[in-house]
Amino acid sequence: MRRFSAYLRAALAAAFFCGAAARAGEGLALEECRLEHPLRLASVDARCAKLRVPEDRSSAGSPRISLRIAVIAALNRRGAASPLFILAGGPGQAASALYVSYAGAFARINRNHDVVLVDQRGTGASSPMQCSFPDDWSEAANSPESIRAAGRTCVNKLGDRVRSFTTAAAVQDLDAVRRALGYERIDLYGASYGTRVAMSYMRRYPQHLEAVILDGVTDPERPIGPDTPEDGERAIAAIIARCAADGGCRKAFPSLAADFNGLKARFGTATAAIRISDPSSGDDMSLDFNHAMFAASLRMLSYSAPQASMLPQLIHRAAMGELAPLAAQAVMTSRQLGDQLAIGMQNTVVCSEDWPFFAGMKLDRPALQKTYQGTDQLDGLNVICAQWPRGPVDADLHAPLHSATPTLLLSGEADPVTPPASAERAARYLTRHRHLILSGEGHGQLATSCVPRLMAEFLDHPQPALLDATCLNAHRPAAFFLGASGPAP
Question: Pairing with 336, which of 270, 402, 404, 460 sits 20 to 30 Å away (CA)?
């Protein structure tokens, strides 16, 4: 029934696409198209167009690049609700990829609101900045020489033009799309890094905003990166504590904290040769289980409660010497992420907007090195960013955000990269906001519990204080796997 409803909605959207989106303020012609999931798991009907914008927005004679735009028209064509623009995370994920992966979570919103997807410059089908770097779990990921060589190859491939793909330019692109589609006021949904884009738009164009949803909120006053090892450690501690508070999980894995600490100590320096079945092909695969693989597997699996539900079992099995299941998860998840992220664009954003500010922070390296991630990622960024072209950054990018725009902030209690404290800091000067924290959850609440309904109700009536979120009182995160077959019945 759900699939039929999706096809029916798409057909109706095509048949009755006669609202504000079709009245392009700058003559933008939208044509029928189909958006496909990067892994070809799903597809969605939409109306698409290309908008030509300057590649270098600081130069009047700059060559142009094309932004891919898609509009999924609201079912209620007689309404006048503001459209929702979706901003993806990463940095490096395309908005179209995010939407196709979670179209069901936006279905209630799409009843009254057009959904607009702009693949941010450098991602998706908007002049993608693609290149290859060593997998997070590989030995090469810890090798400065390998990282430096990959960065040099990437810069040589993409050229100095890569410096034009920063958040500041993307925000100007976003407003250009708004004008081209003829919208006066819009809503924004930003996920993870997309919250930075959303907050930058809130600074630049507040007069064109109706409401904003920030999901997995970055702190505008702090660069991304230095806090991640300790945030990740807290997330693992929260998962272990939740297992200890769960009777079935505690009984199955009574020494989980010791198992984790033992693995962290062992794979700080040790390496174990293992064989796994390749998650993609099923072929035998030989690799080294080392610190990089241990850190990558825990970091990726802690991102969401459904994935984290496997961690106690996997940590325990690894502590007993069965490393292959944990390794297979690292390989599989890393490949899936790599297929969806434009690493060249990601490097430009991080090296321009975050890395230059590391020097002004008091980094406690001994404390960071005590975490399961250590300083590997920060050290790798130092190598990459030392040779990466840096682009324009707004002077107030890391200033406190003052805004009266109605804003809904969403956090997971055990988020390993944007914890609730990050959202609390971001919300200090938001005069009309509501912050919802989901117990036991990780990074991104878009499809969790009753959140899709709450988002739709908030956008239909953007009054944060009046939003009835009591449905979250009944929320419980995914049950832990107590064996290979899944959670206990």
Answer: 270
Question: What token pair was written down for 250?
Answer: 């505690």
Task: Decide if 93 contacts 336 (C-beta within 8 A).
Answer: no
Bridging pattern class, strands 481-483 and 284-289: unpaired
SS3 (DSSP) at 168? helix
Quote the crossing angle between the two packed helices 324-340 and 291-301, to the nearest 10°.
70
Give the distance, in angstroms, between the CA of residue 245 and the centroid of all CA atoms in the same chain.
29
* Phi, psi dihedral angles at 54 (to 5 degrees): -65, 135
What's the burial of 81, exposed, middle or buried (CB within 10 Å: 0-12/13-18/19+)? middle
Backbone φ and ψ for 91, nearest 5 degrees, come out as -60, 150
* pTM of full prediction above 0.85: yes
Query: Would you give the distance in Å from CA 174 to the centre of its chain?
Result: 18
Q: With CA atoms as reference, report the closest residue to 412 among 402, 420, 424, 404.
A: 420
Structure tokens that stand for 462 in this block: 């953007």
Cβ-contact 408, 214 below 8 angstroms: yes
With residue 70 as reference, give the H or E element that holds it. Answer: strand 64-72
pLDDT at 488: 65
Residue entry with tokens 């390993």: 416
Question: Strand 43-54 to strand 64-72: parallel, antiparallel, or no bridges (unpaired)?
Answer: antiparallel
Q: Give the pLDDT confidence score for residue 274 in this predicted structure.
A: 92
Sign of the C-alpha dihedral computed for residues 248, 251, 257 and 263 taken in this order = negative
Tell me the mean pLDDT per 10 residues along the chain, length 489.
33 35 56 85 91 94 96 87 96 95 96 97 96 77 87 95 97 97 97 98 98 98 95 97 97 97 93 86 87 92 93 96 91 75 96 94 92 93 96 96 98 97 98 98 96 98 97 96 77
CB atoms within 10 A of CB 110: 19
Residues in Cβ contact with 101 at an 8 Å cutoff, skipping those fewer than 6 apart: 37, 41, 42
Which contiguous run of DSSP H or E holds residue 50? strand 43-54
CA 358/CA 443 separation, integer angstroms: 23
Q: Is 35 helix (H, G, I), strand (E, B) or coil?
A: strand
Sheet order of strands, 84-87 included: 31-36, 43-54, 64-72, 115-118, 84-87, 186-191, 209-215, 407-412, 433-438
* Nearest alpha-carbon partner for 181 in 118, 121, 106, 119: 118
- Cβ neighbours, 10 Å, residue 104: 14
Which residue is it, tokens 């293992």?
A: 274
* Under 8 Å between Cβ of 213 and 455: yes
Residue with tokens 């799409």: 110
Query: Distance between CA 274 and CA 403 in Å, rounded?
Result: 53
The Cα 168–Cα 179 span in angstroms is 17
Looking at the DSSP bridge assignments, the partners of residue 440 are none
